[in-house]
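Hey,
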Amino acid sequence: MKLPSFEYLRARSMEEAWALHSEAGGDALYLSGGHSVVPSMALRLQAPSRLIDISQIAELRGVSVAEGTLRIGAMTRHAEVLADPLIAHHAPLLSQAAPHVAHPAIRNRGTIGGNLALADPASEFPAAVLALRAEIEANGPDGRRLIAADDFFLDLYETALAPGELLTAIHVPLPPESRLFGFDEIARRRGDYAMVGVAAQADVAGGVIAGASVTLFSVGFTPVRARAAEQALDGAPLSPESIARAQAALAQDLDPPDDPGFPPERRLQLARVLLGRVLSRMEPVK
């Protein structure tokens, strides 16, 4: 399908972007890499009168570590997430997720900020950010705020961003050396949307798990924290027995949509299989 008509403008600063958004009376979208916004417009899921290109705003770029936090600028491209050594060391779930995101041409243009702002429930990065218990940095005319990932994804393609706000960065707490992590998904073909995916991390103290974090994606309208599965793991060694308890607990965490082509019970079964695979292969932070 052809795109609807729109006005294209480029912002050189956050202040200019906010002003251009306000001028459009809210009937505007921010454009970073374009691989989320443009397809949604082609499908008539969105039809703004104005696109505001924010790709040249310097404040949205860069990866850095300060005060116990890894800060990833919203304009960091998927390919950069895959290659960046700071991300690989401090947020390996993101590095593990990146190769599963679409195809190289898209990873070279798409940005992590645009991906999170779209909030596609079948996408890898929202689930990884949720499992990392990260915070989303938002900036708007009323100032800067940090939104816990648990509070950011509200519904299908809906986030806690206020109208006109820019998603400017992701803040990930630096992990302890005892942290384990794992990521995997099941897709019909490499690069396709996942049928089900799992992102998990866990801290180990005294031989037992202390603070598991398990997130599933492509199982509902948002990425889902599997809190019952987390509770089944906490306080126990990572063993076949604790993994089996976590798999069984998924029935309390998941309520997959009723899809005639992919029944909920089948999706739950795949989620259990994948969770067992991810937990049994968790690796330490390097």
